[in-house]
């Protein structure tokens, strides 16, 4: 069962800003403005991304014109489990430690994470911890102050800003280094990734249901990977720009209805940057109905996931009222119950909606 604890693991971040005696806030101030450093392009990545996107468009055409029914029906679930390898695995389990997992669940999530090919969990989590700690500064690997495209995928097309490298080296990764499964994936990534992300999704449909090589490769390997990449990238780009900020109006991350609609998780990005240790990456009730949260809850039901961390309603409410932009459906300034200044009514109304 979720443990409603607000204590954090030493990984996270908001309290760091308040308690490090100004060290981190000084750093943030120094890093805040993009310093005009010209990024050195990595042409190999650019060429590979161009090839990937042209091949994926061809895959999309094949999906509707040449694929077998089995491939057609399994395509969306395949994208969903791919995305799960990032959202439940690299993000909520390893980067933020929002819950604990037994060995079988860790193996499943490491397999799905390799299926998603966004680098080994160890490096993904390091970059993501830097992203949370130095959001919207030059040390943020996907700094959205450099524009939508940079935050989306441009950061993968150029060498890292020196501040990203410097701060990345200072991030505590001892918990990941103590996890033999994470270190196994890191050590053998260049062998595991091509087999799991590209070879398996090509040959399995060919042998199990007679799909052609052309469709298997372009649809189940490339298009599946490409779409899952964009789902995750949208969290770094659009979810740092255009949407509501019900929990903290002073930070860039937003709650983005477009991503919330697809229900793969991580659409409540304003909430997530305020309360990154919550396994739901979203508030309670109807605000947390995404595939990733349901997956973690199902694993908790099986006993494979445990010590799920969450945030008390009271803390969420206080924060929304103190720093939110007023767009929270219950605790925003525009809420008709709250205009009556009747806290009891507000609380009841939230319970109804949950
Ligand atoms: Zn973010
Ligand atoms: Zn995060």
TrEMBL record:
Q: Tell me the membrane topology, using the record's own terms.
A: Multi-pass membrane protein
Fatty acid desaturase domain residues are 68-276
Q: Which Enzyme Commission numbers does its entry carry?
A: 1.14.19.1
Cofactors demanded by this protein: Fe(2+)
Q: Which UniProt keywords apply?
A: Fatty acid biosynthesis, Fatty acid metabolism, Iron, Lipid biosynthesis, Lipid metabolism, Membrane, Metal-binding, Oxidoreductase, Transmembrane, Transmembrane helix
Q: What is known of its domains?
A: The histidine box domains are involved in binding the catalytic metal ions.
This one is known as Desaturase F
Can you name the source organism?
Answer: Drosophila erecta
Its gene name is: Dere\DesatF
């Amino acid at each position: 069962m979720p443990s409603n604890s607000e204590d954090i693991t030493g990984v996270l971040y908001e309290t760091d800003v308040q308690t490090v005696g100004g060290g981190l806030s000084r750093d943030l101030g120094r890093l805040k403005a993009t310093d005009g450093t010209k990024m050195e392009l990595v042409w190999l990545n650019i060429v590979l991304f161009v090839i990937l996107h042209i091949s994926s468009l061809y895959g999309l055409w094949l999906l509707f014109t040449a694929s077998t029914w089995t491939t057609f029906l399994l395509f969306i679930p395949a994208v969903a489990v791919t995305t799960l390898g990032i959202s439940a695995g690299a993000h909520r389990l390893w980067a933020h430690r929002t819950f604990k997992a037994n060995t079988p669940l860790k193996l499943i999530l490491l397999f799905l994470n390799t299926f998603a090919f966004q680098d080994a969990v160890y490096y993904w989590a390091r970059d993501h911890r830097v992203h949370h700690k130095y959001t919207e500064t030059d040390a943020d690997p996907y700094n959205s102050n450099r524009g939508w495209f940079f935050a989306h995928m441009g950061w993968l097309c150029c060498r890292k800003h020196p501040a990203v490298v410097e701060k990345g080296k200072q991030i505590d990764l001892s918990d990941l280094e103590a996890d033999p499964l994470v270190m196994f994936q890191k050590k053998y990534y260049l062998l595991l990734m091509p087999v799991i992300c590209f070879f398996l999704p090509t040959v399995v449909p060919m042998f199990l249901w007679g799909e052609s090589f052309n469709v298997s490769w372009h649809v189940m390997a490339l298009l599946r990977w490409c779409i899952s990449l964009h789902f995750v990238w949208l969290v770094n780009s659009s979810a740092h720009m255009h949407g509501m900020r019900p929990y903290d109006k002073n930070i860039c991350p937003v709650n983005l209805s477009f991503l919330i609609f697809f229900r793969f998780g991580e659409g409540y990005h304003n909430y997530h940057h305020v309360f990154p240790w919550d396994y739901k990456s979203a508030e309670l009730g109807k605000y947390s109905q995404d595939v990733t949260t349901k997956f973690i809850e199902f694993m908790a039901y099986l006993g494979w996931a445990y010590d799920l961390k969450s945030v008390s309603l009271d803390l969420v409410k206080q924060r929304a009222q103190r720093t939110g932009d007023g767009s929270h459906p219950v605790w925003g300034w525009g809420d008709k119950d709250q205009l009556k200044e009747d806290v009891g009514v507000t609380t009841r109304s939230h319970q109804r909606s949950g």
